[in-house]
Amino acid sequence: MRILFTTLPVETHLRPLVPIAETALSRGHEVAVCAPESFRDEVARYGLPFLPAGEDWITGMLAPLFGSEQIPPDQVDALMRRLVSEGLPGDGALGTARDVIGHIHEGGADAVVREAYDMGGYLAAEAVGIPHASVGVVGRVTEFLAPDLLAPSLDEHRSVLGLPPDPRAERLYAHLHAHLMPPGYDPAELAIPTLRCYRHRTVDRPGDRLSPPLEGLDHSLPLVYASLGTVAPLFKASDTRLRSIIDGLGDVACEAVVAVGQGRAEALGRSCPPNVRVVDFAAQPLLLDTADLLVTHAGFTSVREALRAGLPMVAIPWIAENHLIAARCEELGLARRLDWEVLDGERVAAACRDVLADPAYRSRARAVQRDMLALPSLDTLVTDIEDLFSGATP
């Protein structure tokens, strides 16, 4: 069986697909990851075969705001609406679909597995008549990826590819939607008829290690890890928030590691509090296994990996589905939520102290961890994909 995986060129969208691809390989299947050429090296770091498909349109959509010192909330909201209504289901999806169709005609494929933001894999599988599965690498898909925003553009592409209309975008999840959290985390997503929940596992890139960020730690103090993910640090507007996090953690009785993005540690780490280590990047899954608290932008990969480690959070959402995820984590008592627009060091310090001091946060995170560990493994997910190919209902 040959399975093609499709993803946008975003590392945190690829990372949850990697253990699924590795599991499929271990069972004797052939796999390849289809993504823009600019993402080739990132895929290669995980040792997976790569096939070029589509272009990196997402960087072009976000880039005009990268250098802005301040981005008003209405601009962020407008950008996110464009992302869902024009970007994800737009011409880039059709371009990816055409390239994936070409790879299928050339080398064959029995199923497509796409991360939920990628629409090209869905269109390609529909066009050639093979089953497709989506993986919820982002949270709250039925809310953020609203079908009424996606359907008009997707239907135009379906017409181009000779497919019948799908006015409510129901075919997006026609065969299988893999949710990597327990059912109680996102009741709205349970409305997807083909949804099944699976136990994800974290993956490390070759060469990942805890040192040097953890050298010389005072192990009598709690360890706090902070990161605003891979996208937010691309925007200069995030610098003041990262500075607030660094300063705030300096006022907490803890040891802290703050990951700030490529090439930014030198500038943001100047005059750093003695208990805070500022780094460009850190081996996040490894750090979360040893930490006591995560300060996060509430990206779904970070939240999922934190809860897999039984960690509570301080959530500072800014863009995309992060607000929805942060609100749900606060509702479940897993996190304290802070407002990006009024963030300062004092608020960061107070929230971190509160969460670290209240054992109920950790207890609730551990309860979700146990629920996650009780889910079927990714081996079961691969079996379900095999069943799609054989015509069985997973």
Automatic annotation (TrEMBL):
Protein name listed in UniProt: Glycosyltransferase
Identify the residues that the record assigns to the Erythromycin biosynthesis protein CIII-like C-terminal domain, covering every copy. 244-388
Specify whether Transferase is a keyword of the entry.
Answer: yes
Lineage per the UniProt record = Bacteria, Bacillati, Actinomycetota, Actinomycetes, Streptosporangiales
PROSITE patterns given in the database record: UDPGT
The record's listing under SUPFAM superfamilies reads: UDP-Glycosyltransferase/glycogen phosphorylase (SSF53756)
UniProt KW keywords: Transferase
Species in which this protein is naturally found:
Nocardiopsis codii
Sorted alphabetically, which InterPro entries does this protein's record hold?
A: EryCIII-like_C, Glycosyltransferase_28, UDP_glucos_trans, UDP_glycos_trans_CS
